[in-house]
TrEMBL record:
Pfam families: choice_anch_I, Phytase-like. Residues 79-348 form the Choice-of-anchor I domain. InterPro entries: Choice_anch_I (IPR055188), Mesenchyme-surface_protein (IPR052956), Phytase-like_dom (IPR027372), Quino_amine_DH_bsu (IPR011044), WD40/YVTN_repeat-like_dom_sf (IPR015943). It comes from the Bacteria. Keywords: Signal. Transmembrane segments: none annotated. This is Esterase-like activity of phytase. Residues 1-26 form the signal peptide. Residues 503-766 form the Phytase-like domain. The lineage of its organism: Bacteria, Bacillati, Actinomycetota, Actinomycetes, Mycobacteriales.
């Protein structure tokens, strides 16, 4: 698909010709600005990263289900109403999950007794409990009740307010309400159930400019505090204790703007100690819960991180760095009773794109993630280039659980849509174990250790793009392995060059490697520049991107919307390049080192009849004088009947084009359309990938069809009536995509039969633009 072409620039150190400039394209390709870079072509070979991806079933999480929150909407509510899941809790039996939905101003209930088939149990609107402007910020289950933390501020930052509603779960009635005296954020329950701690943030107004400061700066009184709710007796007897912070103590600890502290997140250990992050102040506090005494207050410090992408320019350029930025931690979790782990999301002044571990007694930093979190996103194709200048993967959520007797940290990436799993048996040396994809904006991370379950709730709901907020359920260990999705994530990763992962994503093409039966080629489209052909080693699990070839012209790297790649028996490649408009579509013949040798424009009348969806796939048959190039156009020409796309045959020997028709399947879904994504020659026939524009539970048409190679000549002009070639269903890919038990990806875009005889399919993750970012690489076994 056509995308905005970003400004690219030179990337040194990661790969030899990595983030080059965008060159002006002529003769049928999109044009853009060109910068001066090295003139040599380069092929870079990577080595596998020192990560053990293949954790045995008893020692790993298995994805069980992805439940779209809109399916739990009230009767009669339009399907496109924005509704999300943020923070969640679970009943003591582990069967009912309760989540906050601040967007729709309600809480929701899910039956997860069968975690592979969660069921919606309806919602409870805050308009039934208070005012229409009230918003839930957090929930925690205690015995037969759910404590719903409610922000009642209503936009008046100078007079913050909030409450806790105590709701009986059985009948969803409020039995008590407790005034909190300020605007709340998070809540945590002590392990013994004697009290709950609530962070009263009294957050700043980002549009307000304090005297002598800049817009959004602190101080903006009133200051925040912590409210302890004692849970003795019946709910009507519960009382609160307010814990304030000493300004002088905060100033001595080196906190930012100590006169206006903003508690963000709380957690309680077995000793009843409350850990609190003061995010905007870059601080951490420890409170003795039973007495309410602040026993420790210290700064989270600063960090400098190298070898990360810090420029939003459409290029995965890992030569950037940040220097001495405050960590500004969000979520916090106790590792035992001594250590504290923080997700360093950042806010107004900082954010270090990683997570850290502190000694709670001394405030000393004992471990910091550095660039590991960012590199994890790049390795797995989840790098969000649109957030490169902000806070990168933005670690926000964090929780500590125990698996098989070992403490484990679960750290969520808000912008790259994953949760990373670390063994923290040694808090000074965490060990990465697994990466778990989620839908957009994972906010809540709920471990349910009694059932070996994990629920990840997401706060981004985009009905227009069809990517909806969801709860993703995982099960840990052998007991959940049989119900887990396949293939496991990640199914495709990149290797390292000089210790840095090769950047990739938005893969819309696959090709057989004629020189090696256990290899394929793929290519990035213009979601990431510059244009590159990537080599995939199929003998690795997950499959490994271990080769990178920059596409160049006169030694200059280009940004191209590559939608198809075909390796030639005679060496080099054909690339199908989609243009912003029809005449800008082109077929490029490039050498083995990526240098463009020939531009082959579409016939003028064909280009003129194309819309914004043009060339989508290319495949090569034969070699030498007998070489034939097959292409597909994604949609109908203006001159063709509705629902008939074109297959093109180009013969390099004489430069001639011939065209045939392909009947697209119909769709009756508003806003949907059907198009072609890929073509490959196999066993004397053409395999053509056809898909709709739908994803998630709405996805229907993701299929490969077989078309016999025509023996008769095709038409040569746009105005000539094409012969529609008969098609037969070769493989319905929808069940394969659903089998991952994740969000069904819209863009199944690459297909190839490797020399080993197996059929492979890859999805285009759109560079995380209106997509979850997950890439699914399918090995579908022997081609039939």
């Amino acid at each position: 698909m056509t995308r905005r072409t970003g400004r690219a620039r030179r990337r040194a150190g990661t790969v030899a010709v990595a983030a080059g400039a965008v060159a002006a394209l002529a003769a049928g390709c999109a044009s853009s600005e060109q910068e001066s870079v090295a003139s040599s072509n380069d092929i870079t070979t990577a080595t596998a990263a020192p990560i053990e991806w293949n954790v045995e079933n008893p020692q790993r999480y298995h994805r069980l289900a992805t439940y779209p929150i809109f399916e739990n909407r009230p009767e009669g509510e339009p399907i496109d109403t924005e509704t999300v899941a943020e923070i969640s809790s679970v009943t003591p039996d582990g069967n009912t999950m309760i989540y906050t939905d601040a967007t729709a101003q309600r809480i929701g209930f899910l039956d997860i007794s069968d975690p592979s088939t969660p069921r919606g149990l309806g919602t409870l609107s805050l308009t039934e409990l208070g005012n229409a402007d009230d918003q839930p910020t957090s929930v925690i289950v205690h015995q037969d009740f759910v404590l719903v933390v409610v922000d009642t501020t209503g936009g008046d930052f100078t007079a913050p307010s909030g409450r806790v509603d105590v709701v009986r779960i059985a009948d969803r009635t409020r039995v008590h309400s407790i005034d909190l005296g300020g605007q709340p954020d998070s809540i945590a329950l002590s392990p013994d159930g004697t009290f709950a701690a609530v962070a009263i943030e009294n957050q700043r107004d980002e549009d307000f400019t304090p005297e002598g400061g800049e817009e959004g700066d602190l101080p903006q009184p009133p200051t925040g505090f912590v409210q302890i709710v004692d849970l003795t007796g019946e709910p009507q007897a519960w009382t609160t204790r307010r814990v304030d912070f000493d300004v002088d103590q905060a100033r001595a600890a080196g906190l930012d703007t100590p006169e206006d502290l903003e508690p963000e997140y709380v957690d309680v250990n077995d000793r009843g100690e409350i850990a609190v992050t003061l995010q905007e102040n870059n601080g951490i506090a420890v409170i003795d819960g039973p007495t309410g005494e602040v026993t420790s207050l210290f700064s989270a410090g600063t960090a400098s991180v190298e070898d990360i992408d810090t420029v939003e320019d459409g290029v995965i350029d890992q030569t950037g760095s940040i220097t001495d930025l405050p960590r500004e931690p969000d979520a916090i979790g106790w590792i035992g009773d001594r250590y504290l782990a923080t997700a360093n999301e950042g806010d107004w002044k900082g954010g270090t794109r990683n997570w850290s571990i502190f000694d709670a007694a001394t405030g000393d930093l004992v471990w910091d993630g550095g660039n590991e979190f960012s590199h994890l996103a790049v390795r797995t194709g989840l790098h969000n280039e649109g957030r490169a200048e902000a806070k990168g993967p933005e670690p926000e959520g964090l929780t500590i659980t125990e698996l098989d007797g070992r403490p484990v940290a679960l750290v969520g990436s808000e912008r790259s849509n994953f949760v990373a799993v670390y063994d923290v048996s040694d808090p000074t040396d965490p060990q990465f174990r697994q990466i778990l994809p989620a839908t957009n904006g994972p906010e809540g991370i709920l471990a349910i250790p009694e059932r070996n379950l994990l629920a990840i709730s997401s706060e981004v709901d985009d009905a227009e793009a069809g990517v909806r907020a969801s709860v993703t359920l995982y099960g840990w260990g052998e007991e959940h392995a049989a119900a887990g999705g396949s293939p496991a994530f990640p199914s495709l990763v990149s290797g390292d060059v000089d210790g840095l992962p090769v950047g990739w994503g938005a893969l819309g093409a696959l090709s057989v490697d004629p020189e090696d039966p256990d290899r394929l080629f793929t290519a990035t489209d213009d979601a990431y520049g510059p244009a590159r052909v990537l080599g995939i080693d199929l003998t690795q699990t997950p499959a490994l991107i271990d080769r990178e070839i920059a596409v160049t012209e006169d030694g200059q790297p280009l940004t191209l919307d590559i939608e198809g790649v075909a390796a030639r028996r005679d060496g080099g490649f054909y690339l199908a390049v989609e243009g912003a408009e029809g005449p800008e579509n082109a077929l490029l013949r490039v050498a083995e080192d990526g240098a463009i040798e020939e531009r082959i424009g579409l016939p003028d009348d064909i280009g003129a009849a194309l819309g914004s969806q043009g060339l989508e796939g290319v495949s090569v048959q034969g070699s030498g004088d007998d070489e034939t190039v097959w292409v597909v156009l994604q949609r109908e020409l203006d001159t063709d009947p509705p629902g008939v796309a074109r297959i093109g045959r180009y013969t390099p020997a004489d430069g001639g084009w011939q065209w045939y028709g392909y009947q697209l399947d119909p769709t009756d879904v508003d806003g949907d359309w059907i198009g072609l994504s890929e073509i490959t020659v196999h066993d004397g026939a053409l395999l053509i990938l056809e898909r709709d524009k739908l994803n998630g539970p709405a996805a229907r048409i993701k299929a490969i069809h077989r078309v016999e190679i025509p023996t008769e000549s095709g038409v040569t002009g746009a105005d000539e009536e094409v012969t529609v070639l008969p098609k037969t269903l070769y493989r319905d890919l929808a069940p394969d995509l659903r089998a991952t038990r994740g969000w069904v990806q819209e863009k199944a875009e690459g297909v190839a039969v490797a020399g080993n005889g197996n059929l492979y399919v890859v999805t285009d993750n759109d560079g995380l633009d209106d997509a979850t970012g997950e890439t699914v690489f399918l090995d579908l076994g022997p081609a039939q």
